[in-house]
Amino acid sequence: MTLSFRNFSAPWWFLLLVAIGALVVGYVMVQRMRRKRTLRFTNLELLEKVAPRGPSRLRHIPAIVLVLALMLLTTAMAGPTAEQRVPRNRATVMLVIDVSLSMEATDVAPTRLKAAQVAAKSFAEGLTPGVNLGLITFAGTATVLVAPTTDRGGVAKAIDNLKLAQSTATGEAIFAALQSIDGFSQVVGGPDGPPPARIVLMSDGKQTIPTENEDDPRGSFTAAKAAAERKIPITTISFGTADGTVEIEGRTQSVAVDDDAMKEIASLSAGDFYKAATADQLRKVYDTLGEQIGYEIKEADASRPWLILGTIAALIAAAGSLVLSQRLP
Question: What CATH number belongs to 86-299?
């Protein structure tokens, strides 16, 4: 990691380096004066008898280490900062899960729904504590099962109890998520404004209600545009394969996944699109989202290492001086 003066919160403390430099110059001058006084003692044979043999150049080591300690401590006082990955302390996420009959398809073992439940629970339980998580399911209608909360237990329990139903009202689900976020933001919004929000939408099929036209006033594309206006991105997960089928009223029906619609929803809302054709891929997608949503990169204080190194160097300087000169520097 490279630090520059832009990465110090109080760089004026580096003015102390001038004082440290003056100490170094003073030390060198004192040593030279000491050497001159020694040379004035002309009877070198008598000098060797009355003066104890010194530790020669080793005696300078404690002073050098002490200067290094002062430089490290000065750097710590200047407040070095660095980009660090820290947990978010405020954010709102609405997890929106498709529970239409197509989720009973077995192209993802054991079924799309079962695989989705396992991955969604892992995602919910792994989110950092500062994220408020809500849960919405949708088929023919959208249902808010859990309002945004930091209580992961309620979300996990609701995921375990998901039930399938007919039709796919994707637009209604997005509008329900936006409404839930708006209501929560009015309650928790403080001087810093409402917490940043995101919708995570997982679906396997094309919208069927109110019509198959996503640009309908209550359609998914219209809802995605409304999310963009509120600056709430929608992360979409297209889950399943083109070979999925289900038995409905004794007839086998194809329920191929609709990647194009999910891509467009993500694009219109300035969100991200993910494709998951297996349970393992879905788990990895949720793991990635957990990292993106639960953590952020911030400029944080990085003075502790400098302070520790400076203190250790000062202790080494003191110990070395006691051993070599029987006194503290």
Answer: 3.40.50.410
Alpha-carbon distance 16 to 78, whole Å? 10
For 253-305, the pLDDT digits (tens) are: 999 999 999 999 999 999 999 999 999 999 999 999 998 888 877 788 888 99
With residues binned 3-state (H G I as helix, E B as strand, rest as coil), the percentages for the chain, rounded to 5, are: 50, 20, 30
| Burial class for 43, CB neighbours closer than 10 Å (0-12, 13-18, 19+) | exposed
CA atoms within 13 A on the CB side of 52: 4
Q: 43-48: list long-range contacts, CB under 8 Å, 24+ apart.
A: none
- pLDDT digit string (tens) for 26-56? 888 887 887 776 555 555 555 455 555 555 5
**Is residue 243's pLDDT more than 50?**
yes
143: left (phi over 0), alpha (psi -120 to 50) or beta: beta
Nearest residue to 261 via CA among 214, 316, 325, 191: 214
Nearest Cα neighbor of 176 from 205, 215, 146 is 146
pLDDT in tens, 196-221: 999 999 999 789 998 888 999 999 99
pTM of the model: 0.72
Asked if residue 110 has a cis previous peptide bond (ω within 30° of 0), the answer is: yes
Question: For residues 292 and 124, what is the distance between their CA atoms, to the nearest angstrom?
Answer: 13
The residue ranges of every structural domain in the chain are 5-80+302-325, 86-299
Q: Omega before 210 cis (within 30°)?
A: yes
Question: What is the model's pLDDT at position 276?
Answer: 95
Which residue, chain included where needed, has tokens 């929106």? Answer: 96
- Among residues 148, 141, 149, 146, the alpha carbon closest in space to that of 161 is found at 146
CB 99 within 8 A of CB 204: no
Buried b (16+ CB within 10 A) or exposed e, 215-239: ebebbbbbbbebbbeeebbbbbbbb
